[in-house]
Design goal:
The structure holds 3 protein chains of 3 kinds. Chain A is α+β, with helices and mostly antiparallel strands. Chain A is built from 14 helices and 8 strands. In chain A, a hairpin with a 2-residue loop joins strand 2 and strand 3. In chain A, helix 4 packs antiparallel against helix 11, helix 4 packs antiparallel against helix 13 and helix 11 runs parallel beside helix 13. The radius of gyration of chain A is 21 Å and the shape is globular. Chain A starts with 12 loop residues before the first strand and ends with a helix. In chain C, the strands form 2 sheets. A 3-stranded antiparallel beta sheet of chain C has the order 2-3-5. A two-stranded antiparallel ribbon of chain C has the order 1-4. By secondary structure, chain C is an alpha+beta fold. The chains are: A alpha+beta, B mainly alpha, C alpha+beta. Chains A and B meet through helix 4, helix 5, helix 7 and helix 13 of A and helix 5, helix 8 and helix 11 of B.
């Protein structure tokens, strides 16, 4: 709820939030002009963790850029792997075997679950609830164990390859994933919804706070749960299907309340949808190779302009690849969803209370390295 | 013995030891409790099950430099932590642990306790103000508005109790509830049918008064870093922490005496100080349990809770009690 | 007015449910691993820093000093030197250095190696305050192993 701000310019003070602040989840700095506890103006300051990923893509070969993709959004690294791999595959015209596509979907969705669980945990931490963090980490740890078994790493995965995946999944992974689905389904209603979602304190803090209109979402290019919480039915997996997503039956949760609670609910529902997708993918998993044959070691895609987008946990991640026929990209533009989602913060946080603004920031689900790239 | 000079000295030593042990070991209990709730072990390494952890923490805090940043109000900055600790310690004097264990029996001990509790809020205010830190000042302002809002329903419920007992002496209030648990004020349905509600209101208020989660507006670490304690280091910080735990002990003692019959046994067996201790530690565990269950409220929602729910409810209870006392 | 009573009673109920959940968790066994005392099982595909593979027949490293790993590394953390001893046809590895401060464990080097001469190790207990400690001499490491 926005209140009209009428304050004398000499009555305001500037509060520097970050770059080291418990609620900014990294090195985001927000310059807040405050009138008491009300925010008059909020100005996010970026660039504290800028690492020139886009330039690095121009320097090395296509394969050498792969590990960088995982370091942007470290919470949903596999989606970034996927986006980049898709763009290069489109450029080089590589066909991916079906089993590899399924494995990609399974791992990406597992990673999305882990990302959403971590968001949930950190969001509750922003709101001052410590215990849910540990409960969510209990579940998330199991996903990480599963993914570690097949990819070899726990956070910054580098698992996808042009034309497939690094290595095959085994029966133990499939059984473990099925167990995990069962476990999370049984825990969701009690440990997540009863403990937190239905809690009156949480409802009071999120309802009608952080109102983002659909018009604002379009203006700033917000995607993902932020847009879907504002009633915009846009999910790259449905609207511009890629990989084998069209073969699965899943819903895109959309809420029209536009407040923080709506964004919260979108993500909670997405957890269930991801479980559905993984289950179907495991059922349909075909046999076959996991890597395309005849992928040259040094890729030289023909000159041209290619684009691939994937639905990451935070929104649409786009990879625009311009090739000049050489062995490295002429230009690689990475469209990161959080950058657009954060841009909303300044406008929406005006007139909010400090505590509400931080809850609102948590509901945007920011990952700072991805904003700065 | 009663008139000898030794009595106050022995009491002083005992109460100081009790307060000190509580201030140190409640921190340990809190960490263990939080650990168990979150299915961790909590401190394990220092001593058996981390029992020496409070000592290690104290040693660490004392060996650190007491940093006084530039631009603070030097006098107030140093007074604040002491002021946070002393009133809680002083409150121990009038609390009757049993029918014969009480530092000093005062006729108006209830009033004294509330007066001392308000000083704790002033400690936060001047600590936050003197720090000259924006986060600390916001925190101080929040603490004051919160304490003001929560003292009203708390006092109204206490008035209910005082009306039932007809005394402001904690000893008398506790003596009035001797016998089984049906004599306790919480179940005194012959005086008012809303006594359990009254107990819950009082308990919520004491959580808010001690600045504990979910009402820890003053030190909301995800918003205000550490609130009024941001600029404090070493034992300055340590005293604030100890003051917080002592306030919890005092709050639990007060709740026990006002509502749970003080040192009386629920079944009328062996009344004594042990029942008092069992009751206060159950209440303290509830404090810890609540803290590690809920997210934090927001400052205006907190005031709403007080002004729109707690105060009307406690007023209704006051009226009902008055009617019951008049009619029966 | 009904919204008010809903808030009061519904809210109180939700808070009580919350307390009951955490109370139940309180009595459940601990699930964390006490790390230094218990060590997790390292999965087969764990990515530690790379190490050289020994050729069981000759006892020497399998590496033929082609330098593919060096060229494929995105961060340039591998440097190797091979010499051709008198009277032998193949090069022999004399130095293989990994600058682990730059390595991101992507595995490009392992994939680029056509001879299976390097693999991921299972070392994860790496801690030091000096940067030089992370420049590993893998050839020496291999010799020390065995």
């Amino acid at each position: 709820m926005t209140v009209p701000i009428q304050c004398r310019p000499d009555e305001v003070f500037v509060l520097n939030l970050g770059p080291q602040h418990p609620a900014t989840h990294g090195v985001l700095r927000v310059k807040l002009t405050m009138d008491g506890e009300y925010i008059v103006k909020a100005e996010p300051v970026l660039g504290y963790i800028h690492r020139m990923h886009e330039k690095m893509a121009e320097a090395g070969s296509f394969a050498q850029f792969m590990p960088n993709t995982a370091r942007m959004d470290y919470l949903h690294a596999l989606a970034y792997n996927h986006g980049y791999v898709l763009a290069v595959e489109r450029a080089a015209g590589i066909e991916v075997p079906e089993r590899a596509e399924y494995i990609r979907v399974i791992t990406v969705e597992l990673n999305r679950l882990s990302s959403h669980l971590l968001w949930w945990a950190a969001f509750l931490l922003d709101l001052g609830g410590f215990t849910p963090l540990l409960y969510a980490f209990d579940d998330r740890e199991r996903i990480l164990d599963l993914l570690e078994r097949i990819t070899g790493s726990r956070l910054t995965y580098c698992y996808f390859r042009f034309g497939g995946v690094y290595n095959d999944i085994d029966d133990e992974f499939i059984a473990g994933t099925r167990d995990f689905i069962k476990r999370l389904r049984s825990r969701l209603p009690r440990m997540y919804h009863d403990l937190v979602t239905h809690n009156i304190i949480l409802i009071k803090r999120l309802k009608d706070i952080g109102f983002i209109t659909p018009e604002q979402c379009r203006r700033y290019g917000a995607t993902g749960p932020v847009a879907r919480g504002s009633g915009i039915n846009y999910d790259v997996r449905k609207n511009e299907p890629y990989s084998v997503y069209p073969e699965f039956d899943f819903d895109v949760p959309v809420y029209t309340e536009c407040d923080s609670m709506a964004r919260y609910m979108v993500r909670m529902d997405e957890i269930e949808q991801s479980l559905r997708i993984i289950e179907q993918a495991l059922d349909k998993l075909p046999d076959g190779p996991v890597k395309a044959k005849k992928v040259p070691k040094i890729l030289k895609p023909p000159a041209g302009d290619y684009y691939a987008a994937v639905e990451a946990a935070r929104g649409a991640f786009g990879c625009r690849l311009v090739c000049d026929g050489g062995k490295s990209a002429y230009r690689l533009k990475l469209r990161s969803p959080t950058f657009c989602n954060l841009s909303l913060f300044g406008e929406v946080a005006e007139g909010m209370l400090l505590a509400d603004a931080l809850a609102f920031m948590g509901s945007l689900d920011l990952v700072i390295p991805e904003i700065d790239r | 013995m009663d008139t000898s000079i030794w009595r106050p000295i022995i009491y002083l030593i005992c109460f100081m030891a009790f307060a000190g042990l509580n201030a140190a070991y409640l921190g340990w209990c809190e960490r263990k409790g939080a650990g168990r709730i979150q299915r961790r072990t909590g401190p394990m390494e220092v001593g058996f099950h981390g029992l020496l952890q409070p000592l290690a923490d104290g040693l660490k805090l004392m060996s650190k430099q007491l940093l006084v940043p530039e631009g603070v109000d030097h006098i107030l900055f140093r007074i604040a932590p002491i002021l946070a600790m002393i009133p809680a310690l002083t409150s121990m004097v009038v609390i009757p642990f049993s029918d014969n264990i009480q530092g000093r029996a005062l006729e108006l001990s209830v009033l004294l306790l509330f007066a001392l509790a308000s000083i704790g809020m002033i400690a936060i205010l001047i600590g936050g103000w003197a720090s000259g830190n924006k986060y600390a000042v916001i925190s101080a302002a929040r603490a004051v508005s919160q304490n003001l809002a929560y003292e009203i329903p708390m006092l109204i419920t206490v008035i209910t109790i005082v009306m039932i007992t007809g005394s402001m002496n904690l000893q008398d209030i506790a003596m009035d509830q001797q016998g089984g648990f049906w004599h306790w004020n919480i179940f005194r349905f012959d005086k008012s049918i809303f006594m359990p509600v009254s107990f819950i209101i009082f308990f919520i208020c004491s959580v808010a008064e001690t600045n504990r989660a979910p009402f820890d507006m003053a030190e909301a670490e995800s918003e205000l870093i550490a609130g009024f304690m941001t600029e404090y280091s070493s034992m300055g910080f340590g005293l604030f922490m100890m003051g917080e735990y002592l306030n919890i002990v005092v709050g639990a003692c007060l709740t026990t005496i006002l509502f749970l019959g003080g040192w009386s046994c629920p079944f009328g067996l062996f009344p004594g100080v042990w029942w008092f201790l069992i009751k206060i530690y159950i209440l303290i565990f509830t404090f810890i349990w609540i803290r590690w269950t809920y997210p934090r409220t927001q400052v205006y929602k907190l005031l709403n809770l007080s002004w729109k729910i707690l105060i009307p409810f406690s007023l209704v209870n006051l009226l009902v009690t008055a009617a019951f006392i008049k009619v029966f | 007015m009904s919204a008010y009573w809903n808030d009061v009673f519904g809210g109180a109920k939700s808070l009580a449910i919350g307390l009951s959940i955490t109370a139940r968790e309180f009595f459940k066994p601990v699930i964390t691993m006490q790390y230094p005392w218990e060590v997790p099982e390292i999965p087969e595909r764990f990515r530690g820093h790379i190490e050289l593979v020994r050729d069981e027949k000759t006892g020497r490293p399998k590496c033929v000093c082609c330098g593919m790993c060096m060229r494929s590394c995105p961060s340039g953390c591998i440097s190797l030197v091979g010499k051709k001893p008198e009277g032998e046809k193949k090069k022999v590895l004399t130095k293989y250095q990994l600058d682990f401060t730059k390595c991101s464990l992507c595995g490009s080097c392992i994939e680029s190696c056509n001879f299976g001469a390097i693999r991921f190790s299972k070392d994860y207990n790496l801690a030091s305050t000096r940067k030089e400690d992370y420049v590993f001499d893998l050839l020496k490491r291999l010799e020390e192993q065995g």
